[in-house]
Design a protein that fits this description.
Layout: E1 27-31, H1 36-51, E2 55-59, H2 61-65, E3 74-76, H3 81-88, E4 93-96, H4 106-109, E5 113-115, H5 117-120, H6 128-140, E6 162-169, H7 181-193, E7 197-201, E8 220-221, H8 226-234, E9 236-242, H9 245-252, E10 257-260, H10 264-270, E11 277-280, H11 289-299, H12 302-315
Parallel strand pairs: 1-2, 1-4, 2-3, 4-5, 6-7, 6-9, 7-8, 9-10, 10-11
Length: 330
């Protein structure tokens, strides 16, 4: 979603953390995916290890942009493939979500390589945040875990400060995850009739798809970095969007989320799991997986999304000072 243009593209000219010292045996490196949602969920494992007294070093561009929001972790930009062996060889454990990306050959040369492929695709109804917390407990023998990545917003910000603002992310990493733009615009108009203000968050590269919008469409926002996006999300009252990392960031920050998914099983795994949320996916009358993939956008109406949102809104109302009425962020 947001690219951090202020960060270097390579790891050159900066001090890269390596494992050393007496506590080396309880030191772990996390190699983060370039995907924002993957990063935020894998940080659940990193946070739980830190709570258990481990030394945790993280490599990833989204995490590095948010380094001030994770002051308890040591975070560096993403490793270049040419630096990986030199940097990671000193770590007894290296964790990467996927077996072959972003570093393709870790399994082949690092004896302490750990991936979460089987956790991601396990056949259960848990969301990814819960799966990763349970993995941390099982794989590392932790007596207790939290479903949290430990994100800590700056004290200058106030959670859900804008009590009528609904952050909307109408885009996604691939076209097959996107509900129709026309229905997102219609949704925003309906929200306006009940006193809510929808604002669309976009990557600058996505703006051309919205240039032809009519005068009644919601305002469009772009952000120079993941941290700038996080600031805006944290002070929004609710979030609505497609299956994307932006929803996981909003949920991490305690913002209630409604996510539109193309498939039920994908929704079970990838629904944002850090704060109260709702999901909408094709109804039961779409009979097969193939038809769901082809017609899911048409089968999800604005009326259905609005009904789910208003049910979520009634459960997660905000007071005039921006505080949640029924729950609070960990």
């Amino acid at each position: 979603m947001a690219r951090d243009e202020t960060q270097p593209a390579t790891s050159a000219h900066m001090k890269i953390p390596t494992a050393s010292g007496a506590d080396r045996v309880r030191t772990v490196a996390f190699v983060m995916s370039p995907a924002l949602g993957d990063t935020l969920n894998l940080l659940v494992v990193a946070h739980n290890l830190w709570l258990a007294g481990w030394r945790v070093n993280v490599f990833g561009d989204h995490a590095h942009s948010l380094a001030a929001w994770f002051p308890h972790l040591t975070i560096a930009p993403a490793l270049m493939p040419g630096d990986a062996r030199h940097v990671l060889a000193s770590y007894p454990f290296v964790v990467q979500m996927h077996r072959d990306r972003p570093l393709a050959d870790l399994r082949g040369w690092h004896p302490g390589f750990i991936d979460l492929h089987d956790v991601e695709y396990a056949k259960n109804g848990d969301c990814m945040a819960r799966r990763f917390a349970d993995f941390a407990a099982t794989r590392f023998g932790l007596p207790s875990v939290v479903v949290s990545n430990g994100i800590s917003p700056p004290t200058s910000l106030r959670g859900r400060r804008h009590t009528s603002r609904v952050a909307v992310h109408p885009e996604a990493s691939t076209a097959d995850k996107r509900w129709t733009p026309q229905r997102f615009v219609e949704l925003a108009r309906h929200l306006r009739t009940v006193g809510l203000r929808a604002e669309f968050a976009l990557d600058a590269r996505e703006l051309p798809r919205w240039d032809s919008r009519d005068a009644g469409a919601p305002p469009l926002r772009t952000f120079a970095s993941t941290a700038a996006l996080a600031e805006w999300l944290y002070e929004s009252a609710w979030f609505i969007g497609n299956d994307s990392g932006v929803g996981h960031l909003a949920s991490s920050l305690g913002v209630p989320t409604l996510t539109v998914f193309r498939r039920r099983r994908i929704a079970q795994r990838w629904r944002p799991g850090f704060a109260p949320g709702a999901i909408v996916y094709p109804p039961w009358w779409v009979p097969t997986a193939g038809l769901k993939e082809r017609w899911w956008r048409e089968s999800i109406t604005v009326r259905r999304v609005l009904a789910s949102f208003h049910a979520l809104r009634s459960r997660t109302a905000v007071q005039s000072d921006g505080a949640a009425s029924e729950w609070m962020v960990q």
